[in-house]
Amino acid sequence: MKRTSTLLVTTVVGVSMALTACGSNSDSQSADGAGGGGGAGKVGVILPDTKSSVRWETKDRPALEEAFKNAGVEYTIQNAEGSADTMTTIADAMIADGVTVLAIVNLDSDSGASIQQKAASQGVKTIDYDRLTLGGSADVYVSFDNTIVGELQGQGLVDCLGGRPANVVFLNGSPTDNNATLFSGGAHSVVDATPSITIVGEQAVPDWDNDQAVTIFEQLYTAADGRVDGVYAANDGLAGSVISILEKNRRAGQVPVTGQDATVEGLQNILAGTQCMTVYKSATEEANALADVAIALANGEEPTTTATSRDDTGNRDVPSVLLTPKSITKDNINVVFDDGGQAKDEVCAGQFAQMCSAAGM
Ligand code: BGC
User: Fold this and answer.
1) Class of domain 146-281+329-358
2) Where is the Periplasmic binding protein domain (predicted)?
3) What are the backbone dihedrals phi and psi of residue 225, each rounded to the nearest 5 degrees, phi first?
């Protein structure tokens, strides 16, 4: 703990202040010997941003804190606020502070790979958390099976369209996020094999930026003369952007839209009928998986992995823990509540109370 405070004062004072100014918080804690992690050294985690999805600060951070505390591992969690330079600066500071394991959610593969290379040269083990760094050198990749995420989204869209002939637009996630490629690929494998569906537009949204998504979707909608019957949106934030344009055109609720992350807003849109499905990925499961792998690496043990993930850029198969995502519609929204993924009280607040009772909750 002493070392941490010294570090914050001397080494990363710039970053720390910058992050405070942006409203982000860093979070550092020592928790000795309370579980299997005793003596495991310190784990650093760098989250990507606060805007591409609310999940990182509202779900991943608390789940990670809980996982490390339960394991009795010293940790520090910071957020790069969407800047690869900031992520690099934070990583340098964490390495200087003596982390033995560094986990990152990269903002793009190139910056992620440089961070990992530097870490490895200092004897620090690295983990790709949620996003695979192409051409990187992470010892392990911890995530969900992201191709399955995409397949669930594609199947969800097909089911919501109910077999009627349909023009569909694809709004993909950030081109720099390997997950976005996997999500889109998984969704295409289902949608492209459905003869009643015609794809009439497709674009990726830089940095998963919800504001740009509004403009991009409006252009795609206009280019298709408004003849859009369904939308693949890669996460709940992008779904919200799509729904705003559908509302403007008085089509919200008639055009099924997909999503991902089971956010409060996404679940509320599902209750309201403006979004057709989302994908639930338990933050607790992912955080616990990260903690297990981090502890093993810190102790010089072989982490337990369940799969490998192909990195064509680096021409290697990365040992991975890939968890199983769940498709959520109005019919099984309770799955998210029962698992503690969101609090029912929060989702079913205000105007949504009635919709929750109508949906049998
Ligand atoms: C994550 C999604 C998230 C998106 C935007 C992806 O890499 O897997 O859960 O919605 O990034 O942050």
Assistant:
1) alpha beta
2) 44-302
3) 55, 30
